[in-house]
Input
Amino acid sequence: MSSSGRLYRFGSQLQPIDKHAPIRRLNLAIGQKSEVRAAWFRFPSFELEPLSQVYLRIDASTYTYESGGGQFTADLKVDAFGFVTNYPEIWEAED
Output
């Protein structure tokens, strides 16, 4: 959850673009971690549910993303603008 306790963002099963906004907004320093709460839109059921997410900045271009209380984790590679360039086993940008 964000420090204000508000719903932080809207998430969907469309990845990796939905990781860009929290990475940019959090602006984490290397080694810093933050929990956010998303509204998760499930498709095709169209159900909306809360989802806690954790972002940990590993280095200048790597974030560890965690959701479901640690049931899912991935090390995301990002470019200088915070766009995910590699989401292991899900997506990779082309040069």
